[in-house]
Write a structure and sequence with these properties.
- With 491 residues, the chain is mostly helical.
- The protein has three domains: 59-237, Biosynthetic peptidoglycan transglycosylase-like (Penicillin binding protein transpeptidase fold); 252-330, no CATH class; 340-438, DD-peptidase/beta-lactamase superfamily (Beta-lactamase).
- 48% of the residues lie in helices and 8% in strands.
- It contains 17 helices and eleven strands.
- It has helices spanning 2-26, 68-78, 90-103, 113-122, 129-145, 148-158, 168-176, 185-193, 207-223, 229-237, 252-260, 272-289, 340-350, 384-389, 393-403, 405-414, 440-479, and strands at residues 38-41, 47-51, 58-59, 165-166, 265-267, 299-302, 309-313, 333-334, 358-361, 380-383, 437-438.
- It has a three-stranded mixed sheet with strand order 2-1-5, covered by helices on one side.
- Strand 6 and strand 7 (309-313) form a beta hairpin.
- The longest helix is centred in the C-terminal third of the chain and has 40 residues, at 440-479.
- The N and C termini lie far apart (95 Å).
- 30% of the residues are buried.
């Protein structure tokens, strides 16, 4: 009889386990449907600018890695057996049940980090026993599909940190002005305890309660060997922030441009020091030019060697009355005389023009179009290179006529210009003098290509001269009786 009961119990347990596995297996892995804030970082990872997500929340997305200090503080505070349990911690459940019965009300929920991830994904308005069971099942399902690191990343991405701050990285920047990997032990401990009661334990409110909770965690970490007593004393002395910090806004127009394109987190090639210095120079010049009615300035600085944009200012933010929100880096404007070097370059490449070749600089009328030079004077004939360096209008128009408008448009489009989208016949010879629109970004791209082409030619000339020197030295080495030793790598 006893053997039969044991057998029945075994069958029942196996059946329940199988059914539980099937139920858990068919449950979906928690998914988060959230929109990230638009944030821009410079090439070193420093925050340049940020814009809140459309739902009013600050979310910086998934961190590249969970910093060790925060990871250790979080596990110590929220889920010490996180690395051991399968999503549900039976020991924590027993302990919470005993504590809740002893106090006659709920003092502990026994939720693991994985269960908290499930709860955040569900965004359930209630937190009753039924919700707990669902979250436990989802936690088991999550542990089957994701690694512990992936689960921690989900938690760090979506945990609430008070107010409208969501996620570890947004919290690190808003509260401490630095990335998570640079947090001190005190700062990491503060962020570890904050999501436990984000509405109550806000740095701007209940500071004493938040400090006490942080300090208890710091002492536990020290007792566990995370750091020594000296570090503990320094950590306990650190104040908690009064309120969230205002984010840097060093590149507002770049931020707006990326936001319009639906970009979230972006690592740009901007050099923060150069960005700030460029902004200072633009503001100073704008204040000078404002007396002449010039209120809008933009600047784009590009590294010729790499093609990377290292400073981006779409406009000068002034008094808000002169359309300073308009991004002139991306807005089409008249190209002026910016296309003249490319007419010259196209003719030079085709062999139809030489630098010292004389070109006409005399009054002309072509189909009713009567171009003039800026100085209203004419030189008769000048070398093509001089005409370009002086930005003479008549030679540029005649060179464009010689090249052909269709050929020049094809050349520009081949270089990446997208603003010349009208039909070829809509353009005339005024194309050489600003009769077309282009963006500062595309014009900068054209000049970078021109500079890199010039650098390439210069390098070829230099390399050719060095090659000739090396060849001569090798000939001397072979023919000399005594021989000549050439330093390794010199040729």
């Amino acid at each position: 009889m006893e053997r039969r009961r044991s057998f029945r119990w075994l069958i029942t347990s196996a059946t329940l386990g199988l059914l539980s596995g099937i139920v858990v297996g068919i449950l979906p892995v928690p998914r988060f449907a959230t929109i990230e804030s638009t944030v821009v970082f410079d090439r070193e990872g420093n925050l340049l600018a940020g814009q809140v997500a459309p739902d009013g929340q600050w979310r910086f997305g998934t961190p590249a890695a969970i910093p060790e200090r925060y990871r250790r503080a979080l596990l110590m505070f929220e889920d010490e057996r996180f690395l051991l349990h399968p999503g549900v911690d039976p020991i924590a459940i027993v302990r919470a049940t005993v504590a809740n019965v002893r106090h006659a009300h709920v003092v502990s929920g026994a939720s693991t980090l994985t269960m908290q991830v499930a709860r955040m994904a569900r965004n359930a308005p209630t937190r009753n026993l039924g919700d707990k069971i669902i979250e436990a099942a989802l936690a088991l399902r999550t542990e089957w599909s994701l690694s512990k690191d992936e689960i921690l990343a989900l938690y760090a991405t979506h945990a609430p940190f008070g107010g409208n701050i969501v996620g570890l990285e947004a919290a690190a920047w808003r509260y401490f002005g630095r990335p998570p990997e640079d947090l001190t032990w005190a700062e990491a401990a503060t962020l570890a305890v904050l999501p436990n009661s984000p509405a109550v334990m806000h740095p701007g409110r209940n500071r004493a309660a938040l400090t006490a909770k942080r300090d208890r965690l710091l002492r536990r970490l020290a007792a566990d060997g995370a750091f020594d007593t000296g570090t503990l004393a320094l950590a306990l002395a650190e104040p908690i922030p009064d309120r969230p910090r205002a984010l840097s806004q060093l590149a507002p127009h770049l931020l707006s441009h990326l936001h319009q394109r639906g970009r979230g987190r972006t690592r740009a090639t901007i050099d923060t020091a150069l960005q700030a210095e460029t902004g200072t120079v633009l503001t100073r010049h704008q204040q000078t030019l404002a007396a002449r009615g010039i209120h809008n300035l933009a600047a784009l600085i590009v590294n010729n060697s790499s093609g990377a944009i290292v400073a981006y200012h779409g406009n000068v933010i002034s008094d808000g009355h002169h359309e300073d929100q308009v991004n002139m880096v991306e807005s089409p404007r008249s190209t002026g005389s910016l296309l003249k070097p490319f007419i010259y370059e196209a003719l030079l490449s085709s062999g139809d023009l030489l630098p010292e070749q004389l070109v006409a600089d005399a009054p002309i009328v072509v189909g009713g179009f009567k171009p003039e030079n800026f100085g209203k004077a004419f030189d008769g004939a000048v070398p093509a290179s001089e005409a370009l360096s002086r930005s003479l209008n008549i030679p540029a128009v005649l060179e464009l006529q010689n090249l052909g408008i269709a050929a020049f448009l094809a050349h520009l489009r081949g270089l990446g210009v997208t603003t010349l989208s009208d039909r070829d016949e809509t353009y005339g010879l005024s194309l050489a003098l600003g009769g077309a629109s282009g963006t500062l970004r595309e014009m900068a791209g054209l000049y970078v290509a021109l500079a890199r082409s010039a650098l390439g030619i210069a390098n070829e000339v230099t390399h050719g001269a060095e090659l000739r020197r090396c060849t001569a030295r090798r000939i001397v080495a072979r023919t000399s009786r005594r021989g000549v030793r050439i330093a390794p790598g010199s040729c």
